[in-house]
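User: quick one, sequence for these tokens?
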């Protein structure tokens, strides 16, 4: 694979920053809010690299998802979700990554559990992690991989819902969901947003 254009309008950046959102600590590790970090864990397995602590306040793994492909910096902020922007902006500066080559992988209440959506820019939909990143990067024009977790049942508060573990049925399907989300990230960085959307949506 080359790092050149895969279409007339897409040229692959040399380095991508892939940030998986979540909260630190074992009590949050398998909750819906941390599905972004689970996807980044899947990508680290594909790269064959372990995570190490970075001074920006994140666990970081680097490598390439395919021979000759762009370099990827996989990051899991060590901060709580609502201040994810600080380590994201610090890593973007450290690795000289433009916001357009930042991909944020996060939980999304507004789409079903087994669904993915990709976009660049736009609103944050009330997601505090995205709000923090938009503020610290100084732009909303970064890529988002929205990993569906679905709406809470009944009158359950959304904040409580995302901090709870997946249901038994969801846990059975979770490996496939994470694999598809990791595939979506790969398609985004190798073929561009439009091609990835056409494949995933």
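Assistant:
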């Amino acid at each position: 694979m080359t790092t050149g254009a895969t279409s007339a309008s897409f040229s692959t950046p040399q380095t991508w920053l892939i940030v998986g959102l979540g909260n630190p600590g074992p009590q949050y590790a398998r909750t819906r809010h941390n599905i972004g970090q689970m996807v980044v864990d899947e990508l680290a397995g594909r790269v064959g690299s372990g995570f190490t602590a970075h001074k920006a306040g994140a666990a970081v793994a680097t490598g390439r998802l395919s021979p000759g492909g762009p370099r990827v910096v996989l990051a899991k902020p060590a901060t709580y979700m609502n201040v994810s922007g600080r380590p994201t902006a610090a890593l973007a500066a450290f690795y000289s990554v433009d916001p357009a080559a930042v991909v944020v992988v996060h939980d999304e209440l507004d789409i079903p559990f087994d669904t993915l959506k990709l976009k660049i820019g736009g609103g944050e939909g009330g997601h505090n992690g995205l709000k923090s990143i938009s503020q610290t990067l100084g732009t909303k024009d970064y890529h988002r991989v929205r990993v569906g977790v679905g709406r809470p049942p009944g009158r359950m508060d959304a904040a409580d819902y995302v901090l709870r573990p997946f249901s038994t049925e969801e846990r059975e399907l979770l490996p496939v969901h994470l694999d598809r989300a990791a595939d979506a990230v790969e398609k985004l960085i190798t073929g561009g947003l439009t091609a990835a959307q056409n494949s995933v949506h």
